[in-house]
Design goal:
Largest sheet: 2 strands, antiparallel
Number of strands: 4
Oligomer: single chain
Strand content: 5-15%
Strand order of the largest sheet: 1-2
Helix content: 25-40%
């Protein structure tokens, strides 16, 4: 077999003496060309075919599965329990308020009536309620219970200041009522 014949191209000028950058690519040395071993076109075509076939199969499978799920949900979808039956039943509380502003005014009026009027809390036990102003007036008039003071110790401590022994200081945990050693 003979070597392939190449068409002759202009001779390459010496390196570095090109009029433009494109002139460098005008000359092809003998034996140059594309490599036949770089890309196998048949493998690329097979990959594209398998990719298209798998996309079609997956899409068809997903469509069938979706149809199955829709059919299954229609068969097993129970009706809303309150929609079944002819009687109209309200759901168990809490329900929305029809007029919340009016209900709040009614609530406050009721509470004010309880706070400002006399009434029974427990009639069998004899427990009554009274207005707040009247209860405060009676509490102040009757006096509040207080601790009895020690007569001698209270007078002595009021006249003199108690000196702490050297090396001791009031304890934080007892608000100064007991003494503890100073830490150094």
């Amino acid at each position: 077999m003979d070597a392939p014949q190449y068409t002759s191209l202009p001779a390459a000028p010496p390196a570095g003496h090109h009029a433009s950058a494109e002139d460098e690519y005008l000359f092809q040395p003998p034996g140059s060309g594309h490599e036949h071993s770089d890309a196998n076109v048949w493998i690329i075509v097979k990959f594209g075919l398998w990719l298209a076939i798998s996309a079609i199969v997956i899409s068809a499978g997903m469509g069938l599965l979706f149809g199955l799920f829709v059919k299954q949900s229609e068969e097993t979808n129970p009706q809303f329990p309150l929609a079944v039956g002819k009687e109209q039943r309200l759901p168990a509380g809490p329900r929305l308020q029809a007029f919340p502003a009016n209900e709040f005014v009614d609530f406050r009026t009721h509470e004010e009536a309880i706070l400002k009027n006399y009434g029974w809390v427990n009639k069998e036990a004899g427990v009554v309620r009274m207005p707040i102003d009247e209860a405060m007036r009676r509490a102040v008039a009757s006096g509040f219970p207080a601790r009895a003071q020690q007569p001698a110790a209270a007078d002595a401590s009021a006249d003199k200041t108690v000196e702490t022994p050297p090396g001791m200081m009031p304890a934080d945990s007892s608000a100064g009522r007991t003494l503890e050693r100073r830490r150094q």
